[in-house]
Amino acid sequence: MTNPTVSPERGPNQGRPALRLPPEYTERTPGRPFDPVAHQRDLGREGPVHEVAMNDGDRAWLITGHEQVRALLADPRLSSDRFRSTRLVQKMPVELRKRLIAPSVRAGNFLAMDPPDHTRYRRLLTGQFTVRRMRGLEPRIHAIVTSHLDAMIAAGSPADLVPAFALPVPSLVICELLGVHYEDRAGFEARTSTLLRLDAPVEDIVRAADEQRAFLLELVRRKRVEPADDLLSGLIEAEAALTDDELANIANLLLIAGHETTANMLALGTFALLEHPAELARLQADPSLADGAVEELLRYLSIVHLGPIRLTLEEVEVAGVTIPADATVVISLPMANRDPRTYQDPDALAVTRPRVSHLAFGHGIHQCLGQQLARVEMAVAFTELLRRLPGLRLALPAGDVPLRSDMLVYGVHSLPVAWDDAI
Fold it and tell me: In sequence order, what are the beta bridge partners of 17?
């Protein structure tokens, strides 16, 4: 899986990919860990479309308005496939370019595809991620959440919520869904961390990607011989024409998206609730608010803090601004989800906010396939966490919580917490 916020241009650090946009577009303001990046907020106040300079001097268009983001994510004139741009391909370091253009690597990577190729893969996977099936997983998710809370309680307060709860819960769920041995989690979690680092050297990205690919190819070959009741075996049965490369790359996308995003929402969402005690108290007092609270946290936090990225296939006019063909368009989901033209009091976290449409899962043909699974996981996890750990609180000053500004998926690297006598 390639990092869409990493530029293929070599910067001053040879061998280290430069950010498409300078660090000020991803670094959070001290003391304001839940708000969009200050530089993005400043631009957003000026209007919904902004021409900006990337690290290599190239131009990009940053989109901050909710209406404009929603429209562009559904616009067929914008492509998810950066290989349609000779300009972008030529900027890639040679060693990265050779790997990324290989058919074996591109096969099945539907996030970087346009119709009709994207449509074929999306149709295959949609049947595996029905709302009914995801809801059917709720008892198993509840058991996984309970077992990890039992372990936390047995070990005693305090604990780091990330390795003890937020990361292993969605990791175990996606492992069971895909048919991955859970004991292999340390390897794929470490490789995923490298692939999502904004400052990872090219050689580290290539090595992690190759190791991940080898791991998943072996998994696919095993499933062909020994199918089981899991999603990967189901894909093999449903579409015999899928190659090992296609299946391995599909599994890679699902494995990364299935644990990284939910894990960071659980940790950052808990942090946000602890820093908003009135909202925390409302949710604790009325667990029926959990589904709405999840939607509000998704809107409020928007953990993909820079992206998705699109390429214009032709000239596009957005809010009176003309964006030329073959231009890079950077979507700001955090700003779109805080747009005052769409939301009342958008900078407030309100778990009782009436249900509103947000863009945390994207929009259009690339809208997140696993969004229903993520919703179920978060609703169960937040409800049980707050029920079983009374007096839950930070075990360090809020300003000392390490933030993931250096990662594509925002969150916290760790979250030490304490609690009173547990249930």
Answer: 10
What does 238-255 look like in DSSP terms, one character per residue? H-TT--HHHHHHHHHHHH
Q: Structure tokens of 204?
A: 């580290």
Sign of torsion over alpha carbons 157, 162, 163, 167? positive
DSSP designation for 313: S
At 18-36, the pLDDT tens digits run 446 777 888 888 899 999 9
The answer to whether 272 and 349 have CB atoms below 8 angstroms apart is yes
Please say whether the beta carbons of 15 and 202 come within 8 A: yes
Give the helix ranges, DSSP H, for 2-137: 38-46, 66-73, 86-91, 94-100, 103-106, 117-126, 131-136
Higher pLDDT, 202 or 273: 273
Residue among 99, 175, 95 nearest 141 (CA):
175
The CA–CA distances, whole Å, from 61 to 43, 51, 70, 335, 413 equal 11, 5, 15, 14, 30
| CA gap 275, 31 in Å, rounded | 11
Q: What is the C-alpha radius of gyration for the chain, rounded to an integer number of angstroms?
A: 21
**DSSP per residue, 86-101:** HHHHHHS-HHHHHHHT
pLDDT in tens, 98-110: 777 788 888 989 9
**Pair of tokens at residue 276:** 């908003």
Please state, in angstroms and as integers, the Cα–Cα distance from residue 293 to each residue in 65, 375, 380, 393, following that order: 23, 10, 12, 19
- The mean per-residue pLDDT over the stretch 218-232 comes to 93
How far is it, in rounded angstroms, from Cα 279 to Cα 283? Answer: 6
